[in-house]
Design a protein that fits this description.
- One of its GO terms (molecular function) is RNA-directed DNA polymerase activity.
- Keywords: Coiled coil, Endonuclease, Hydrolase, Nuclease, Nucleotidyltransferase, RNA-directed DNA polymerase, Transferase.
- It comes from Panstrongylus lignarius.
- The protein is about 55% helix and about 10% strand.
- The chain has about 260 residues and is an alpha+beta fold.
- It folds into three domains: about 60 residues; about 80 residues, 2-Layer Sandwich (Alpha-Beta Plaits); about 70 residues.
- It has six helices and seven strands.
- The protein has a four-stranded antiparallel sheet. Strands 5-6-7 form a three-stranded antiparallel sheet, with helices on one face.
- It is elongated and about 115 Å long.
Length: about 260
């Protein structure tokens, strides 16, 4: 038998699973023969992100500034258009008023079946109102189902309008009455003023309150009214409050004067 030959080198061989020293050195050595510290790398990455974010926010701020400026310009344009619209509406309202200045509306005449309304109105003005007028046109207004349709009459001269209105009281107890041909804005104004007059009459008994076109007369004083302007509403409310306060103060003054006379 032969005994196995043993190696004389008793050093223990390195396992293949253990890393080679040269490989470890290769891992530790970075390109350029310099090892980059992790903190430096993170700092550089952070700086890069900050620069990108800053550029992004700068771009957003620029776009936002453009939007803000455009919004400001649009607001100015809208404000200018509103002003122009108010001016145009005012001019249009004035044109309507001028056109309707020569018109009157006759109510309760029962002339539905009369074909020649122009002659009928002229004759009625002569016989009942005792005025001679020149009528340009006359025609029924309102739907077909309305009985006793109102008649819109267009006169040639504005002076005829004043004559008719001055003598309109002669129509009392006849079932007929005459009104001016108002614009839509004027009708809205009259409606508001009539409501205010009713409220004032509930507050003050026996006072002289009358409604005119665009204003209200309270004990001989004139109060203007603008239904489409908030300031006009507030101003009028202040005037009404002042009227009520003056009325109360006047009443208290009269009571004090009466008491002082009785004491004497």
């Amino acid at each position: 038998f032969f005994s196995p030959i043993r190696e004389t080198n008793t050093k223990r061989r390195r396992s293949k699973s253990s890393p080679d020293i040269n490989e470890v050195k290769k891992l530790q050595i970075m390109p350029g023969s310099e090892r980059i510290d992790m903190d430096v790398l993170l700092r550089k990455l952070g700086d890069m992100m900050d620069e990108k974010l800053k550029a992004h926010f700068d771009n957003m701020n620029t776009k936002l500034a453009v939007i803000v400026e455009e919004n400001r310009q649009l607001k100015e344009e809208i404000s200018s258009l509103r002003k122009e619209n108010l001016e145009l509406n005012g001019k249009l309202e004035n044109l309507f008023v001028k056109v309707k200045n020569k018109n009157l509306i006759f109510w309760g005449t029962n002339l539905d079946k009369i074909t020649d309304l122009k002659s009928a109105i002229k004759e009625m003005c002569q016989n009942i109102l005792n005025v001679n007028v020149e009528v340009d046109r006359a025609y029924n207004i309102g739907g077909k189902e309305i009985k006793g349709k109102p008649i819109l009459v267009e006169f040639i001269k504005v002076s005829d309008i004043y004559l008719i209105l001055q003598n309109a009281k002669k129509l009392k107890n006849t079932g007929m009455w005459i009104t001016k041909d108002l614009t839509e804005k004027q009708r809205k104004c009259q409606s508001d003023l009539l409501k205010i007059r009713r409220d004032l009459r509930n507050q003050f008994n026996g006072v002289n309150i009358s409604v005119r076109i665009g204003y209200l007369m309270f004990e001989g004083k004139k109060y203007l009214w603008s239904p489409n302007e908030e300031k006009g509403v507030l101003n009028f409310k202040n005037l009404v409050d002042r009227i009520m306060l003056n009325h109360v103060q006047a009443g208290n003054g009269a009571e004090k004067e009466s008491c002082s006379k009785n004491d004497l």
